[in-house]
Amino acid sequence: NSETIKLEENFSFELMESDLKKNDLILVGEIHGFHEPIVFDVDFFKYLHKNHGVRHYVVELDFVQAALLNDYLVSGDQEILKTVLKKWVVVQGRNNQDYFDKYIALQKFYANLPQDEKFSFIGIDRIQDYNLVTEYLENFPPADSVKQLVTAETLVDNVDFLIEGYSYNQDTL
To answer: How many Å apart are CA 133 and CA 84, to the nearest integer?
Structure first.
């Protein structure tokens, strides 16, 4: 689907409505480093959320970055957002105010939703920040009464194995 509008206008999304109704996964491409695609992302997600009940936003981040981004949604702590985007594989997104503002807008949207309408991010990219993965695994909550086959310590000890085995595997999730 393609729609051309003037930059100061908003998309209507009507052109793709019949396709949206019959698909469970919607992928959006973009040109990195420009303001307009970021505005489109936020507006389109809000539209999908409201009109199609979309509650998952697939992001070009690894699992840990997405988990932290979900923490950011809940807390609104922009230091978490800075940490997530610090070593983002999309170089144009690092230290880019537009990308930062995109996630701030999504967090504000999230904060105003009723609990049963909240959404979450799903990271599907390869590991991007090995130090962040290690730190995340070190801070796993301690095992409770449920017997765990793999402990956080075991995972941290095997980060090199995880990196080698999964960082270039398309099935990282």
So the answer is: 11
State the pTM of this model. Answer: 0.79
Buried b / exposed e across 9-29, counting CB within 10 Å, b at 16+?
eeeeeeebeeebeeeeeeeee
118, 110 in Cβ contact below 8 A?
yes
Q: Where are the beta strands (DSSP E) in the chain?
A: 56-59, 120-123
Does residue 7 or residue 151 have the better pLDDT?
A: 7
Q: What are phi and psi of 56, to 5 degrees?
A: -130, 135
**pLDDT tens digit sequence for 130-150:** 888 888 877 766 555 444 545
Q: Looking at residue 60, what is its pLDDT?
A: 87
State the Cα angle at 96 between 93 and 100, rounded to 5°: 90
